[in-house]
């Protein structure tokens, strides 16, 4: 009898709680209903990380989070984690997940190299350029209802660079190219403002089990993104 | 000729959305009169992105710096933002005179030196200094009692700006008055430039105690309490429901050690400002990094002991009494 009950073991989702908006993710994740019980773990140490089946890296300052991760001896464990288990990075978390970063702090900054993209920090400029915009996202529940994107000193995806052995990158949301920072004119923009060639319009993407958003679903009251991460990325990767 | 600070506007007061908000129902504030990037599909400078940036600073340390070199030390030490100013509060105290907004050139040099958000201070009520800081693209404005007030009756109408504001408060009423004027972040006033944390503790305890009282009140009692606190009723009601301030709340004023920072975190603050405490100490880089770690691991005394070790000399602390040089800055503003 006991064994049968244990056959559906809890799914443990960690939230990296070194700095930033981790409490907001915790609140949103609590509201996700799932077939399997979800246990939320605030991760500050390697021991806590090792108990997790998946991880969310929240928004905050990527330089601060990377330093605190190094001081807590978490950088290498996080890199190992990214090779085996799903991670979702929002904003600063997206920067940490990248393999390359532009506009890094002087002397460079540490990354996890979990996804094959290069990202530019503060791609839109300073806080006065922060904005909100409605997004169409592929795969969310009620896809016809736009998701409210909150972009705060947000990063911009500059390029994707998958090698043949990497899992393919799947774009799940783009913004209108007319919203792109005017200071950047790397790729000429189409009349049709969803130029598929321009990586800078990508604001949400998946690669393998990982999920990346340059905006902040945790600052809305819409938990469809958290639900998406649980059902599409986490549950398929955790054996019952 | 537009003067942002005096735009009559008349738009409804946005209900700021909370953090660590137990009921988890953040409200996205109505879009303010911000220019549109694409003719109506997106909006800049909403209350959502203003208070949202403060949420990204949570669990972090914001450090006072007076030049690009100090700003780089702060960034390397893990600061989540820096506050650019000409003189740290301890020097303002010692030197006296009128303290004003810093030279925009110096602020721009700091902006160019680091990738983290840069804040700068304006005098209470000096809405033109605020217009100037917004024009140079600063990330956050501190309408601060540390500078000499420009208006002893009015604070800035902060709704009129795309750039967010942080303001000091000694109690719940003062915090809610600032939020109703548009502040997207609150901090304790403490007593800046003293290296003495007692006033910051007093202010944080006052806010928390008043929130606890409000949280068990009936609606009738809340109306009366709003009158006592001189606070807008709807913000008091929202605070009572959330059981916390509806915006991010940092500690500031007199913090000098990792233990001070952890103390303020355990008292319920979301993060800390450290002013004179870092660059007036013996080993700034080391102390800065220790305070950053203390804010993350504030509930882990064993780790706090390790990071508090061998930090060199802390800044000289001052007793806060009637003889305090430079006077009590916290009593500026209302």
TrEMBL record, chain A:
GO annotation (BP), single: pyridoxal phosphate biosynthetic process
GO-annotated cellular components: cytosol; glutaminase complex
Catalytic activity: L-glutamine + H2O = L-glutamate + NH4(+)
Active-site residues annotated for this sequence: 91, 216, 218
Highest taxon of the lineage: Eukaryota
One of the record's GO molecular function terms: glutaminase activity
Residues engaged in binding L-glutamine: 60-62, 121, 152-153
Entry's EC annotation: 3.5.1.2
Keyword list, A-Z: Glutamine amidotransferase, Hydrolase, Lyase
One Pfam family matching this protein: SNO
HAMAP family given in the database record: PdxT (MF_01615)
Family per similarity comment: Belongs to the glutaminase PdxT/SNO family.
Protein name from the UniProt record: glutaminase
From TrEMBL, chain B:
Residues binding D-ribose 5-phosphate: 64, 193, 254, 275-276
Residues forming the catalytic site: 121
Record bears the keyword Lyase: yes
Domain PdxS/SNZ N-terminal: 47-252
Record region (Disordered): 1-43
Record key words, sorted: Lyase, Pyridoxal phosphate, Schiff base
Keyword Lyase annotated: yes
GO biological process, one term: pyridoxal phosphate biosynthetic process
GO molecular function: pyridoxal 5'-phosphate synthase (glutamine hydrolysing) activity
Catalytic activity from the UniProt record: aldehydo-D-ribose 5-phosphate + D-glyceraldehyde 3-phosphate + L-glutamine = pyridoxal 5'-phosphate + L-glutamate + phosphate + 3 H2O + H(+)
Signal sequence segment: none
Alphabetized SUPFAM superfamilies for the sequence: Ribulose-phoshate binding barrel
Protein EC: 4.3.3.6
Pathway: Cofactor biosynthesis; pyridoxal 5'-phosphate biosynthesis
Binding site for D-glyceraldehyde 3-phosphate: 205
Entry-linked Pfam families: SOR_SNZ (PF01680)
PANTHER family: PYRIDOXAL 5'-PHOSPHATE SYNTHASE SUBUNIT SNZ1-RELATED
Family as reported in the entry's similarity comment: Belongs to the PdxS/SNZ family.
Designated name of the protein: pyridoxal 5'-phosphate synthase (glutamine hydrolyzing)
């Amino acid at each position: 009898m006991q064994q049968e009950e244990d056959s559906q073991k809890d799914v443990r989702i960690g939230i990296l709680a070194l700095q930033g908006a981790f409490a907001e993710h915790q609140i949103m994740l609590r509201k996700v209903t799932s077939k399997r019980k979800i246990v939320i773990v605030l991760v500050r140490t390697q021991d806590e990380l090792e108990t997790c089946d998946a991880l969310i890296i929240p928004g905050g300052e990527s330089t601060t989070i990377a330093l605190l991760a190094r001081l807590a001896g978490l950088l290498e464990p996080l890199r190992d984690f990214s090779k085996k288990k799903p991670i979702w990075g929002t904003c600063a978390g997206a920067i940490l997940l990248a393999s390359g970063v532009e506009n890094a702090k002087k002397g460079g900054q540490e990354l996890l190299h979990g996804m094959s993209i290069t990202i530019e920090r503060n791609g839109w400029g300073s806080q006065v350029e922060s904005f909100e915009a409605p997004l169409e996202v592929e795969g969310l529940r009620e896809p016809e209802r736009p998701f409210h994107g909150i972009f705060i000193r947000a990063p911009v995806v500059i390029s994707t660079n998958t090698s043949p052995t990497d899992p393919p990158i799947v774009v799940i949301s783009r913004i209108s190219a007319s919203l792109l920072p005017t200071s950047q004119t790397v790729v000429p923009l189409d009349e049709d403002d969803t130029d598929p060639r321009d990586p800078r319009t990508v604001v949400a993407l998946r690669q393998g089990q990982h999920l990346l958003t340059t905006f902040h679903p945790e600052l809305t009251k819409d938990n469809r993104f958290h639900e998406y991460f649980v059902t599409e990325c986490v549950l398929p990767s955790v054996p019952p | 000729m537009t003067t942002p600070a005096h735009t009559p506007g008349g738009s409804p007061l946005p209900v700021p959305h909370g953090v660590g908000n137990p009921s988890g129902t953040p409200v996205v504030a109505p879009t303010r009169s911000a220019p549109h990037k694409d003719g109506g599909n997106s909006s800049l400078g909403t209350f959502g992105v203003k208070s949202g940036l403060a949420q990204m600073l949570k669990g972090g340390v914001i450090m006072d710096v007076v030049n690009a070199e100090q700003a780089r030390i702060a960034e390397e030490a893990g600061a989540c933002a820096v506050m650019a100013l000409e003189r740290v509060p301890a020097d303002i105290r010692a030197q006296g005179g009128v303290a004003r907004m810093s030279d925009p050139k110096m602020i721009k040099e700091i902006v160019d030196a680091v990738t983290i958000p840069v804040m700068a201070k304006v005098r209470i009520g000096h809405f033109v200094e605020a217009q100037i800081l917004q024009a140079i693209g600063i990330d956050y404005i501190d309408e601060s009692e540390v500078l000499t007030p420009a208006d002893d009756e009015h604070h800035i109408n902060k709704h009129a700006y795309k750039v967010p504001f942080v303001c000091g408060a000694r109690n719940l009423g003062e915090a809610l008055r600032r939020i109703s004027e548009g502040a997207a972040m609150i901090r304790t006033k403490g007593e800046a430039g003293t290296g003495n944390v007692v006033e910051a503790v007093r202010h944080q305890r006052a806010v928390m105690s008043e929130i606890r009282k409000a949280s068990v009140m009936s609606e009738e009692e809340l109306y009366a309490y709003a009158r006592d606190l001189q606070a807008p009723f709807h913000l008091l009601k929202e605070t009572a429901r959330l059981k916390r301030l509806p915006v991010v709340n940092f500690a500031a004023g007199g913090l000098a050690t990792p233990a001070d920072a952890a103390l303020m975190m355990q008292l319920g603050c979301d993060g800390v400002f450290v002013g004179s405490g870092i660059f007036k100490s013996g080993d700034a880089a080391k102390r800065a990094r220790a305070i950053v770690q203390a804010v993350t691991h504030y509930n882990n005394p064993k780790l706090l002991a390790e990071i508090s070790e061998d930090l060199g000399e802390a800044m000289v602390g001052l007793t806060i009494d009637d003889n305090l040089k430079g006077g009590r800055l916290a009593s500026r503003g209302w």
